[in-house]
């Protein structure tokens, strides 16, 4: 079985991530969305919240599993029998970091390869921190995230929107 992992922080998941997940799910028999629990960072959403949000948003994709992980990505991949890591490239500015991460992971585990999917132009500017920042000021994040994520993100900032 051709299994891959799409790892990230997903704090919160955006339309850019969803685009990569949908395309990777067509390429691989099974895709695991790996949600990083990074104890060094204080996320907006806890890791359990992020896993549940993603499961809810991806409900219709039957070959996609959502799991959290801590520690090295290559260990998480091998524990789950996945030989491929999928990452999205938004712009050339992502490239240095992503290349270095792919090369490091390949040195750590020669059984794991990384493939990159190009993020569509319409999401090239998008990041989870942009979503958090715009939401924190009550700005419109409806073009960045699905409605359920929009509502939960505003709630985190104690913002009540008229149409929510
Ligand atoms: N659409 C929208 N946003 C995207 C995106 C896309 N297609 N692809 C990336 N992003 C954004 C994310 O929203 C995030 O934005 P933010 O920084 O504003 O929150 C940013 O790009 C980086 O995202 P993320 O995918 O979460 O990467 P990361 O750099 O935080 O973490 C891991 C990458 C999780 C894969 C990696 O750190 C990891 O697995 N670490 C575990 C430890 C380990 O194995 N270390 C060795 C690796 S060399």
Give a topology summary.
Blueprint: E1 3-8, H1 15-27, E2 30-36, H2 47-57, E3 64-69, H3 73-79, E4 84-89, H4 92-108, E5 113-118, H5 128-136, H6 147-156
Parallel strand pairs: 1-2, 1-4, 2-3, 4-5
Summed up:
With 164 residues, the chain is of the alpha/beta class. It has helices at residues 15-27, 47-57, 73-79, 92-108, 128-136, 147-156; strands at residues 3-8, 30-36, 64-69, 84-89, 113-118.
Note down, in words, how this protein is organized.
The chain has helices at residues 15-27, 47-57, 73-79, 92-108, 128-136, 147-156; strands at 3-8, 30-36, 64-69, 84-89, 113-118. It has 164 residues and is of the alpha/beta class. It has one domain (3-124): Rossmann fold, CATH 3.40.50. The chain has a five-stranded parallel beta sheet, sandwiched between helices. Strand 2 (30-36), helix 2 and strand 3 form a beta-alpha-beta unit. The structure holds coenzyme A (COA). Residues 7-9, 11, 14, 16-17, 20, 36, 72-73, 88, 90, 101, 104-105, 119, 123, 126-129 line the site of coenzyme A (COA).
Query: What is the CATH fold-level name?
Result: Rossmann fold
Looking across the biggest beta sheet, what order are the strands in? Answer: 3-2-1-4-5
Low-confidence stretches: none
Elements, N to C (H/E): EHEHEHEHEHH
Terminal-residue CA separation: 42 Å
Fraction of residues in β-strands = 15-25%
- Judged by helices, strands and strand pairing, the structural class is alpha/beta
Work out the number of β strands: 5
Percent helix, as a range, is 40-55%
Number of domain modules: 1
CATH top level label: Alpha Beta
What gyration radius follows from the Cα positions, in whole Å? 16 Å
Envelope shape = globular
* Rounded average pLDDT: 96
Which small compounds were modeled alongside the protein? coenzyme A
Main sheet summary: 5 strands, parallel
CATH superfamily: HUPs
Q: Return the CATH architecture.
A: 3-Layer(aba) Sandwich
Query: Total number of helical segments?
Result: 6
Please identify the oligomeric state: single chain
């Amino acid at each position: 079985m051709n299994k891959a992992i799409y790892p990230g922080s997903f704090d919160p998941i955006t339309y850019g991530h969803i685009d990569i997940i949908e395309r990777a799910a067509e390429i691989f028999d099974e895709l695991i969305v790996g949600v990083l629990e990074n104890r060094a960072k204080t996320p907006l959403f806890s890791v359990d919240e992020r896993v549940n949000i993603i499961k809810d948003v991806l409900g219709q994709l039957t070959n996609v599993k959502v799991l959290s992980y801590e520690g090295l990505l290559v260990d998480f991949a091998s524990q789950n029998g996945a030989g491929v890591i999928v990452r999205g490239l938004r712009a050339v500015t992502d490239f240095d970091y992503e290349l270095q991460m792919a090369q490091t992971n390949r040195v750590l585990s020669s059984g794991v390869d990384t493939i990159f999917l190009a993020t569509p132009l319409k999401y090239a500017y998008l990041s989870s921190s942009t979503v958090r920042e715009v939401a924190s000021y009550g700005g419109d994040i409806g073009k960045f995230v699905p409605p359920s994520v929009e509502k939960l993100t505003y709630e985190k900032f104690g913002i009540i929107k008229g149409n929510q």
